[in-house]
Amino acid sequence: CGRGPGGCRGGRTDMALRCAASLAAGRQPRGPRREGAMRWSSAAKPSAVKINEKASREKILTLESMNPQVKAVEYAGIKKPFTEVIKANIGDAHAMGQRPITFLRQVVALCTYPNLLDSPSFPEDAKKRARRILQGCGGNSLGSYTASQGINCIREDVASYIERRDGGVPADPDNIYLTTGASDGISAILKILISGGGKSRTGVMIPIPQYPLYSAAISELDAIQVNYYLDEENCWALNVNELRRALNEAKAYCNPKVLCIINPGNPTGQVQNRKCIEDVIHFAWEEKLFLLADEVYQDNVYSEGCQFHSFKKILYEMGPEYYNNVELASFHSTSKGYMGECGYRGGYMEVINLHPEIKGQLVKLLSVRLCPPVSGQAAMDIVVNPPVPGEESYAQFIKEKESVLNNLAKKAKLTEDMFNKIPGVHCNPLQGAMYAFPRIFIPSKAIEEAKAHKMAPDMFYCMKLLEETGICVVPGSGFGQREGTYHFRMTILPPVEKLKILLEKVKDFHIKFLEKYA
């Protein structure tokens, strides 16, 4: 079956179904047979062809006649020195064993099958939210299209959430756009920002290391990627002097007008302090840059002394000269945080100080994809409108939320400590998000072998790690890194006991790797 319509041909499908039905009933499926040299003709009547039930001939393809090289591959498979593949390469919380938040699933279940609203098994606060969401849907059904910008009452809830989060900073539902995960919003904003040709082509400043969505979107839109490097020696801090260097160099070959920030960082896990955010906002205001703030890990802050500050809040507190002028798009998602609901593809973006005519263009662009998944919109609503004190689901919700976040904090510290005990590995503190991005020493002999295989050295390292331990991580070259440094990204999502085993395996592998290529 193909991805598009018409991927399967009806005739073949019908025949396959008939054959399957015959086999299930213990019968051999009937089809055209040969009798002697007689040729099948569609014009021949069924009675003209006599079927000899006993006649059979030797199969052309047997184990003896098949390609021996194919058989050798099958039977000479090397037993791997591991019993399972541990997928530590992607931030998919539920796939790693994290349990869903009960209240979120209850509300989405009620929205999906409204008959459950009569069930005593569901709490009233979940039913109340489900009814409100369904009232905002055409035909009171989650199966209907919504406005391209999203269900109105959910956008109102997002605005209220932002106001609570930011200590009363006003938020307008009209500036809220529900999206298919944060990625959809980021891609849409980039698409509307890119213009010009030659030296006037839009340049987009992105952090290195970066989440590959940005480089992929920039490439797809034929924009110019402008790299600025995070300071690994200073816990992946963002330095405005580095921003200025990157901007000034880029002006020679493009028109830099977009600055992307990921806070907390992916893959680097740093949490930016207030002073850093103020410096970045001032830089954007001074250089007339459109700010994109990727804040999907805003709930994932673990280190003592670290706190999430939204760019929106700091922008407002810097005064009207900044708040009324700096164009800012901020992004959030159901996929990360304590929810981990990647599959729902729920998200939102808030865009402020957008030109009124551009707002219309943005809605037009978003209308091309009709609307975000409505179940994802419902899931996003529960993220921004969770149970509150006094409601019957509050105690369980808080218990589950804190359990997830406390567990992640424990695993962040465990991962940092264990990596830093391995010779030739250094890991900065995992202040937030859900990944470690350790720096690894790769001997020159291994680098030469990697070149011989036409592979980046850290890709070579990660492939060896996978082959020998079953642990799948992502090489740092996929995110970008300073020349001559090597890293890999690993999620901290596996359960604690499995994570300990994983880290011990990485330790043993790395020591053997150093010995082999020393």
UniProtKB/TrEMBL annotation:
GO terms for biological process: L-alanine catabolic process. Keywords: Aminotransferase, Pyridoxal phosphate, Transferase. Its EC number is 2.6.1.2. Its cofactor is pyridoxal 5'-phosphate. One of its GO terms (cellular component) is cytoplasm. GO terms for molecular function: L-alanine:2-oxoglutarate aminotransferase activity; pyridoxal phosphate binding. The keyword Nuclease does not apply. Pathway: Amino-acid degradation; L-alanine degradation via transaminase pathway; pyruvate from L-alanine: step 1/1. Pfam families: Aminotran_1_2. CDD domains: AAT_like (cd00609). It catalyses: L-alanine + 2-oxoglutarate = pyruvate + L-glutamate. InterPro entries: ALAT1/2-like (IPR045088), Aminotransferase_I/II_large (IPR004839), PyrdxlP-dep_Trfase (IPR015424), PyrdxlP-dep_Trfase_major (IPR015421), PyrdxlP-dep_Trfase_small (IPR015422). It is an enzyme of class 2 (transferase). It comes from the Eukaryota. Homodimer. Catalyzes the reversible transamination between alanine and 2-oxoglutarate to form pyruvate and glutamate. Belongs to the class-I pyridoxal-phosphate-dependent aminotransferase family. Alanine aminotransferase subfamily. This is alanine transaminase. It comes from Donacobius atricapilla.
